[in-house]
Amino acid sequence: MGLQLDAAMLAKLAKFVSLVVKYRRGASLTSLKSASAIIERLLVDSLAVSLVEGVDRSRWCVDIGAGAGFPSVAVAIALPQTSWVAVDSSPSKIAFLRYVSREIDLASYNAVCANFTEFASSRQRDFDLVVIRGLRLNRRLLRAVRRVLSESGRVVLYQHTERFSQLDVYCELACGEAQAREIVLEKGVRSLRFEYHRLDGLAERLIC
Q1: Contact 51, 79 (CB under 8 A)
Q2: Strands of the sheet with 60-64, listed across from one edge
Q3: Which of 77, 79, 97 is nearest to 87 (CA)?
């Protein structure tokens, strides 16, 4: 992908993947059984957030429905200048994320056990980056996202097929200048696509 990672970052990513493999069943983290499958199916897609146009200027980030920490843990490692709040309603997953943050020394990573719409009720324009992976967007969630998103913030939603993963990026500013692009990871097999949209286009993704 062209992402530059130093030895310390790679060591942290390797430790993270090993912890996911070790605790995947006890904390109901993923059905994937091997480190190689987790790297291919989850870690690469997570690191792709680091390549989103303008994400390097993000300071405060939130992962909604954080699960096993994809993408928030991976991006926190790749972009150490970012501070993350990982929100999930599952106590076991939050316990795992807190353990991971201690084990790989993610000082600016905070895991919160909460329903995101309730979490957002006490926030206002706090986050420069909002990431949603594996959750369907409904009206309540959309209102909560808009409440916490900063004026120049970005929202990243994932779409998946067998052949590609697409990151749909929504923001109020600069989206008109950002060009859609594609990165082929293995020719003819899999690619990452980046599509940029105006923030008001989020409403078109609602399921109800």
Answers
A1: no
A2: 109-113, 83-88, 60-64, 127-132, 149-160, 164-171, 190-198, 181-186
A3: 97
Task: Quote the tokens at residue 41.
Answer: 């199916």
- Cβ–Cβ < 8 Å for 133, 160: no
| pLDDT tens column, 156-203 | 999 887 788 999 999 986 565 678 889 988 776 689 999 999 998 898
Cis preceding linkage at 71, omega within 30? yes
Q: State the pTM of this model.
A: 0.93
Q: Mention every residue, 6+ apart, whose C-beta is less than 8 A from residue 96.
A: 19, 23, 27, 29, 68, 69
Q: What angle do CA 144, 145, 149 make, to 5 degrees?
A: 120
